């Protein structure tokens, strides 16, 4: 009986661990073609509360009419816009406030790379979203078929720690130099040890001149 | 021979040893001070004035200003005798009195100081709020009880919780206080008066709908002598209450059907007498004016009632009887003040009619006045409207009194006016709060302008005609040059310097060949504009308009003087900070100061303006159009012509808008003048707020595209002109949790190029962004020191695209960012960087230090590639080894031994000399100087011995000829033997 | 201590001069001194001598021409040693050496006309001129190599950095805090 109980506990722990990586939160991503309305495109799932890693979840396929619209907009030099909500709850679609971060790219650039792009999301490492940007990435080894599917690569970056003035390193360097100088001063220096570089050429020249004299 | 050799050896030895002691100095020579730099000391907007009361005609005027400065100004010529800046932590200065001991100033936070009147030295100071926290303590009113020399004067301070007295005479003042039962209400419902004869402190407090409660304290023991309540329920302001001699209080009631004057004894609260106002033909009293001195012993039995439009009636209280005296009516009466000196009591009536000020002095007892007691003065143009008047009354021998008036205006100008309409001096104190400054080249001289004019008609005339014209023009220039030289020879000024600056040798407001003489156009927060001559700091032109008061003013220079014959033009945009009023647009010629109102051009703008920027490309008249974006995303161009619209179409313009209140950064793409399309948006975390941003200066010339390394390859710089640096500070005050974040955003695509977080740091942050580097200073809250961080961006060893740069190009690798931080030993109030025309000279970073100096240091000290252990490569490239502290040697102070208080802006402008950059600092003091970061490599030094070298050259040449001839003769003779 | 025959007649009028009159007037013959031993006054027939010496003459000329042609190449090792001693720093001595090393081959190449004329007589003069030319070019190449090792040749990107044009930006940006 006890064994079964323990087994259940272990299994449930494992099950919780297995699904634990699914915890985290997801934020809605919407897109718009040109001046059109924003429509839902998918969700970005952040795997932990810090917002370190993310992946694109539930992507919406492009319908043929949307593809045609994208091509039309590309011909007019229009933009393809993407925006992501910064708050977990439902937000209104006003773009004036800070509940959305948005970015854009020109539609013809996007079509030029066959809809392969990277989404760079910048968070502050404590859960707030700062910015999102979309970069059409030319991809080398992928198939060029006629299916217009978004191929997204999500990259999350956080601000890096700034370097502060390196006082510790400087102090150790000064101490090392002081120690080296002290050691040098302490070492008994013989006369020969200090002045060998003057003595050797003089001896050399004397020998050469003797040899020359003898030859003569 | 041997002796000579040894002497020579010794001489050589001395030379060599002394040469080792020579150290190259970067500092100025003593005689160079003042040649090409000037400084202007200012005090700020005058708020409190105290005349020197020790003598009848004050020689000095003591003022306290909004910049927390206490200063003594000479009444004769307006120069500053001395000036003391108080720390901002002490709060604004609440009162200023001149007493026997000196100048007493009390600040809002309760710090009382006494300064020596002649020198400004602090005699003593005391913190009256020693035991209280900041929020609770607020000083309302201050009075000084003058007692005999042995007893010493007493400083009486009324705060929101208590009355405090401090003795001014001994070295350590005894501070006593008596607290109230509850916090008293606002300052306008309280009056503090003193009685020097009976050493009493009188406190009048108005409680709405209850009446006035009068408390009399004994000044020495701070015990309540009497406390009385004067009951009434209609009194709403203390303006209609006056205190008279003999413990009497006079106040009026304006309630309909009971307009009366009441006379009350305030020690007991009993009504002594009441009179109906109709008896005196008065409808309702606006205010009652008695002597403005806080000492009740100077208040006599006379008061003045102000009622109606400029009507004044004199009331005398005689033994409990309220009698009416004389009556007068004055037009456009603005203010009445009564002053008493000796046995004379006079009232000063000020009437203001547009720019005309009339101040009339009338004897209070008799109501008589005459011309010798009237000052009629017209304010000079562009000095604003009068905001306050301070009268200095003095006794004279012939007429009973004389007086002078110190006027302060809305443009922060201070004027002292004497009888009958003489202006003694004027000080433009709005220059102490400059919001932006531009340095502009002066226009060409007439001769050069003539040459430029030839090119105007270049297409229409043929080549020989143009040649003939050119020859004529140059011939006339030669003739005028010789005439000028002859004139100077006549006067004997041929070799004298025309100006005190040895490099500027052109008089007047024309451009000199090195373009070092500039016109500094300055916009002040008070709403006035000034054009300052950069040679000596004099104001050339000024402009003030009531349209610009209380507005945020932005100056945009659309065209400089470089394009003759088109005149230079600048636009002034005045926006209402509350966004309720319509914007104001003025067109200004920055050299002459002529202003034209062009607000009608803004007629089509309905919503508030969000952003404004000058387009980088000019139109065919070399005018850069101004682009305005309003909150409805409509785009407006000024001037709106087909040409400017095509200029806009050719640019790919992206405008970014940083809203520091919401923390949102947005950008718009503007391709035509119709509408702006929103492109990207970025938000800072809601625990942070944006405090600083830095874009790159437009049209910057970058000298080299990369850095040559020791192995002769090039490290190419990441020269993205669209990068914007945004700094945000956390809202946390706790030292362990506050942080600063820096974001480098590409303003076109919205990509985050780099971002850094500084933990345990806070602002204020000063930022400089240029070329491919960024320098900013912040405060390390944990270690309590100021740190400076330098950032540089590099592309790598190869250039991605060497012809054009577009933010939409997808690069294989992101740029390499190098960052390093250093400790700065002094507080920084502002940072600037030198600017030269071609960018070849190395840059110098200018720091405005809080201790009052301007410090310039070469930027290569802030090279992030400095390392602790430099190897061969570092040495070859000339990179210094890393040391964590920034050295601040005093010989690199551009302000040598001057003290420049509160530096808040450093502006740099290039000159035609590549080695020289002009520096202008603003703040409480103005300072202008030149800096040469790589020494003066393109001009011969001042003391270059032209005469000596010329003489030697000519002498040697003649000697060579002569000796050649001689040797020829000698040889000939020899060959004849 | 000769008294000229013409002067003897005037002996009474002029003082005696102890001079040697060495000037030979035209057509005059000296017949007062005996001729030195082995001196023949008749001229020898030239053709015999030429025929006898032609073989050795040609050999000599050849040898001489080869000497001239190989001179630059023979000088190369010494030049290499001088360059090695001069060092790679930029100071007056190495620069002088390099300058000299540049100048000599160029001067030789300029005067190649005169040298070819000298070499014309030998049989292999084409080969010799070619060798001479090549030798000078090698010397020039050595000088260029020395310049390169001193770092004077613009072979790296950092040398062309000053001539790079500024990059044009395709987009423009403006803005700031909300007004």
UniProtKB/TrEMBL annotation, chain A:
Q: Where is the signal peptide?
A: 1-20
Keyword Kinase applies: no
What's the chief localization of this chain? endoplasmic reticulum
Q: Membrane spanning segments where?
A: 195-212
Q: Name one Pfam family in it.
A: ECM10
Q: Which UniProt keywords apply?
A: Endoplasmic reticulum, Membrane, Signal, Transmembrane, Transmembrane helix
Keyword Transmembrane helix in annotation: yes
Top-level lineage group:
Eukaryota
Q: Which membrane topology describes this protein?
A: Single-pass type I membrane protein
Where found?
Endoplasmic reticulum membrane
Q: Which GO terms describe its cellular component?
A: EMC complex
Which protein family is named in the record? Belongs to the EMC10 family.
Cite the record's note on assembly.
Component of the ER membrane protein complex (EMC).
Q: What is the name of the protein in this document?
A: ER membrane protein complex subunit 10
TrEMBL record, chain B:
Location within or outside the cell: Endoplasmic reticulum membrane
Every copy of the ER membrane protein complex subunit 1 C-terminal domain together lies at: 770-976
Domain of life, per the record? Eukaryota
Q: Which residues form a coiled coil?
A: none
Family annotation (Gene3D superfamilies): YVTN repeat-like/Quinoprotein amine dehydrogenase
Pfam families assigned to the protein according to its UniProt record, in alphabetical order = Beta-prop_EMC1_N (PF25293), EMC1_C (PF07774)
Q: Which Gene Ontology biological process is one annotated for this entry?
A: protein folding in endoplasmic reticulum
Query: Which UniProt keyword terms apply here?
Result: Endoplasmic reticulum, Glycoprotein, Membrane, Signal, Transmembrane, Transmembrane helix
Primary location class: endoplasmic reticulum
Where in this chain does the record put each EMC1 first beta-propeller domain? 27-429
Q: Which GO terms describe its cellular component?
A: EMC complex
Residue intervals passing through the bilayer: 947-967
What SUPFAM superfamilies does the entry give? Quinoprotein alcohol dehydrogenase-like (SSF50998)
> Quick check: keyword Transferase in the entry?
no
On subunit structure and binding partners, the annotation says: Component of the ER membrane protein complex (EMC).
Which family would the database say this protein is a member of?
Answer: Belongs to the EMC1 family.
Official protein name in the record? ER membrane protein complex subunit 1
UniProtKB/TrEMBL annotation, chain C:
Q: Which residues cross the membrane?
A: 81-104, 125-145
Pfam (any one):
EMC4
Q: What is its main location?
A: endoplasmic reticulum
Query: Compositional bias (Basic and acidic residues) spans?
Result: 17-31
Q: Which family does it belong to?
A: Belongs to the EMC4 family.
Give the membrane topology, semicolon-separated if more than one. Answer: Multi-pass membrane protein
Q: Which domain of life is it from?
A: Eukaryota
Subunit description: Component of the ER membrane protein complex (EMC).
| InterPro entries in UniProt | TMEM85/Emc4 (IPR009445)
Stated name of the protein: ER membrane protein complex subunit 4
The region called Disordered is annotated at 1-37
Cell compartment(s), UniProt: Endoplasmic reticulum membrane
Q: Name one GO cellular component term.
A: endoplasmic reticulum membrane
| Gene assigned in the entry | Emc4
**What keywords are assigned to this protein?**
Endoplasmic reticulum, Membrane, Transmembrane, Transmembrane helix
């Amino acid at each position: 009986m006890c064994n079964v109980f323990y087994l259940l506990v272990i299994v449930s722990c494992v099950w919780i661990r297995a699904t634990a990586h699914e915890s985290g939160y997801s934020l809605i991503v919407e897109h718009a073609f040109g001046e059109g309305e924003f429509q839902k495109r998918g969700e970005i799932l952040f795997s932990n509360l810090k917002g370190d890693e993310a992946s694109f979840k539930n992507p919406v396929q492009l319908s043929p009419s949307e593809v045609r619209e994208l091509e039309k907009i590309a011909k007019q030099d229009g933009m393809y816009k993407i925006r992501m909500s910064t708050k977990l709850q439902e937000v209104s679609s006003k773009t004036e406030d800070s509940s959305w971060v948005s970015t854009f790219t020109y539609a013809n650039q996007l079509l030029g790379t066959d809809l392969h792009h990277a989404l760079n999301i910048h968070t502050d490492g404590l859960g707030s979203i700062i910015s999102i940007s979309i970069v059409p990435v030319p991809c080398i080894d992928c198939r060029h078929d006629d299916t217009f599917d978004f191929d997204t690569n999500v990259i999350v970056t956080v601000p890096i720690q700034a370097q502060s003035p390196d006082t510790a390193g400087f102090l150790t360097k000064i101490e090392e130099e002081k120690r080296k100088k002290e050691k040098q001063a302490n070492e008994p220096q013989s006369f020969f040890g200090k002045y060998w570089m003057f003595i050797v050429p003089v001896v050399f020249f004397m020998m050469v001149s003797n040899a020359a004299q003898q030859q003569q | 021979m041997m002796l000579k050799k040894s002497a020579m050896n010794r001489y050589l030895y001395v030379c060599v040893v002394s040469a080792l002691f020579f150290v190259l100095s970067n500092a100025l020579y003593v005689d160079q001070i003042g040649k090409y730099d000037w400084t202007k000391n200012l005090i700020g907007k005058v708020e409190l004035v105290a005349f020197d009361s020790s003598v009848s005609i004050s020689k000095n005027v003591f003022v306290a200003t909004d910049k927390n400065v206490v200063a003594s100004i000479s009444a004769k010529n307006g120069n500053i005798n001395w000036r003391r800046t108080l720390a901002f932590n002490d709060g604004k200065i609440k009162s200023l009195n001149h007493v026997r001991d000196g100048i007493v100033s009390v600040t809002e936070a309760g710090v009382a100081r006494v300064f020596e009147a002649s020198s400004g030295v602090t005699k003593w100071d005391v913190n009256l709020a020693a035991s209280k926290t900041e929020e609770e303590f607020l000083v309302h009113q201050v009075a000084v009880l003058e007692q005999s020399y042995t007893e010493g004067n007493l400083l009486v301070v009324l705060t929101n919780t208590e009355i405090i007295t401090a003795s001014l005479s001994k070295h350590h003042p005894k501070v006593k206080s008596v607290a109230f039962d509850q916090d008293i209400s606002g300052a306008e419902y309280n009056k503090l008066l003193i009685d020097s004869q009976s050493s009493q402190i009188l406190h009048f407090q108005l409680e709405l709908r209850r009446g006035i409660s009068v408390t009399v304290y004994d000044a020495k023991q701070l015990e309540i002598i009497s406390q009385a309540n004067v009951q009434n329920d209609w009194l709403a302001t203390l303006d209609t209450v006056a205190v008279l001699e003999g413990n009497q209080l006079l106040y009026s009631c304006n309630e309909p059907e009971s307009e009366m004057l009441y006379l009350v004894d305030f020690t007991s609260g009993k009504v002594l007498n009441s009179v109906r106002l109709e008896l005196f033909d008065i409808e309702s009293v606006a205010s009652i004016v008695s002597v403005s001195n806080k000492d009740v012993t100077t208040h006599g039995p006379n008061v003045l009632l102000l009622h109606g439009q400029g009507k004044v009636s004199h009331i005398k209280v005689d033994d409990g009887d309220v009698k009416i005296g004389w009556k007068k009516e004055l037009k456009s009466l603005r203010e009445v003040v009564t002053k008493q000196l000796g046995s004379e009591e006079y009232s000063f009536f000020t009437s203001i009619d547009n720019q005309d000020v009339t101040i009339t002095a009338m004897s209070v007892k008799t109501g008589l006045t005459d011309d010798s007691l009237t000052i009629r003065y017209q304010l000079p143009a562009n000095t604003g409207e009068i905001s306050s008047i301070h009268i200095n009354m003095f006794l004279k021998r012939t007429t009973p009194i004389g007086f002078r008036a110190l006027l302060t205006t809305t443009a922060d100008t201070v004027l002292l006016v004497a009888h009958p309409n003489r202006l003694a001096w004027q000080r433009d104190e709005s220059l102490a709060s400059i919001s932006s400054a531009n340095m502009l080249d002066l226009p060409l001289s007439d001769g050069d302008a003539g040459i430029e004019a030839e090119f105007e008609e270049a297409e229409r005339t043929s080549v020989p005609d143009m040649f003939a014209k050119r020859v004529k023009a140059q011939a006339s220039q030669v003739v005028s040059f010789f005439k000028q030289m002859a004139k100077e020879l006549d006067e004997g000024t041929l070799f004298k310097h025309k100006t005190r600056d040895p490099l500027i040798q052109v008089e007047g407001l024309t451009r000199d060949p090195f373009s070092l003489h500039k016109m500094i156009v300055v916009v002040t927060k008070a709403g006035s504009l000034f054009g300052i001559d950069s040679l000596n700091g004099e104001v050339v032109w000024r402009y003030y308009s009531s349209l610009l008061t209380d507005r945020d003013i932005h100056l945009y220079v659309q065209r400089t003087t470089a394009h003759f014959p088109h005149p230079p033009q600048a636009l002034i945009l005045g926006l209402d900070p509350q966004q309720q009023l319509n914007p104001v647009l003025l067109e200004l010629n920055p050299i002459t100061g002529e202003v034209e109102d062009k607000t009608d051009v803004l007629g089509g703008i309905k919503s508030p303006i969000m952003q404004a920027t000058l387009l980088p490309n000019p139109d065919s008249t070399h005018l850069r159009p101004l682009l305005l974006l309003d909150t409805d995303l409509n785009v407006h161009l000024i001037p709106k012509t087909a040409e400017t619209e095509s200029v806009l179409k050719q640019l790919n313009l992206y405008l970014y808008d940083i809203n520091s209140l919401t923390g949102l950064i947005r950008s718009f793409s503007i391709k035509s003048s119709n509408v702006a399309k929103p492109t990207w948006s970025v938000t800072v975390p809601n625990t942070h707020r944006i405090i600083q941003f830095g874009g790159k200066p437009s049209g910057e010339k970058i000298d080299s595209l990369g850095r040559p390394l020791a192995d002769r390859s090039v490290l190419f710089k990441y020269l993205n002109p669209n990068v914007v640096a945004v700094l945000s500070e956390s809202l946390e005050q706790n030292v362990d949790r506050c942080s600063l974040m820096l974001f480098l955003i590409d303003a076109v695509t919205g990509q985050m190029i780099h971002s850094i977080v500084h933990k345990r740091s806070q602002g204020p942050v000063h930022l400089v962004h240029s070329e491919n580097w960024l320098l900013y200073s912040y405060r390390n809250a944990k270690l309590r020191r100021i740190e400076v961080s330098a950032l540089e961006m590099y592309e790598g060893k190869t250039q991605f695209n060497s012809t054009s740069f577009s933010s939409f190009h997808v690069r294989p690798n992101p740029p390499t960012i190098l960052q390093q931080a250093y400790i700065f030993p002094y507080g920084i109030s502002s940072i600037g960087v030198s600017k030269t025309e071609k960018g070849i000279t190395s840059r110098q970073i200018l720091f405005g230090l809080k201790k009052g100096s301007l410090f310039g240091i070469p930027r290569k000290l802030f090279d992030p590639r400095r390392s602790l252990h430099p190897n061969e490569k570092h040495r070859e490239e000339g990179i210094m080894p890393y040391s964590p502290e920034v050295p601040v040697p005093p010989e690199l102070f551009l302000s040598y031994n001057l003290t420049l208080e509160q530096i808040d802006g450093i502006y740099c402008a290039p000159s035609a000399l590549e080695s020289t950059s002009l520096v202008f600092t603003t703040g409480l003091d103005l300072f202008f100087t030149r800096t040469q970061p790589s020494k003066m490599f393109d001009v011969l030094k001042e003391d270059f011995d032209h005469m000596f070298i010329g003489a030697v050259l000519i002498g040697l040449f003649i000697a060579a000829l002569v000796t050649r001839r001689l040797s020829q003769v000698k040889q000939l003779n020899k060959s004849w033997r | 201590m000769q008294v000229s025959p013409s002067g003897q007649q005037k002996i009474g009028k002029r003082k005696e001069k102890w001079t040697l009159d060495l000037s030979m007037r035209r057509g005059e013959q000296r017949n007062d001194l005996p001729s030195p031993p082995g001196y023949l006054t008749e001229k020898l027939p030239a053709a015999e001598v030429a025929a006898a010496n032609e073989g050795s003459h040609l050999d000599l000329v050849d040898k001489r021409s080869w000497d001239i042609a190989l001179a630059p190449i023979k000088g190369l090792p010494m030049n290499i040693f001088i360059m090695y001693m001069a060092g790679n720093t930029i100071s007056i001595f190495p620069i002088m050496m390099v300058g000299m090393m540049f100048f000599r081959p160029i001067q030789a190449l300029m005067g190649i006309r005169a040298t070819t004329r000298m070499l014309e007589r030998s049989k292999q003069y084409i080969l010799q001129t070619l060798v001479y030319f090549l030798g000078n070019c090698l010397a020039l190449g050595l000088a260029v190599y020395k310049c390169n090792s001193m770092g004077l040749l613009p072979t790296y990107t950092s040398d062309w950095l000053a001539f790079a044009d500024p990059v044009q930006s395709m987009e423009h940006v403006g803005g700031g805090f909300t007004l």
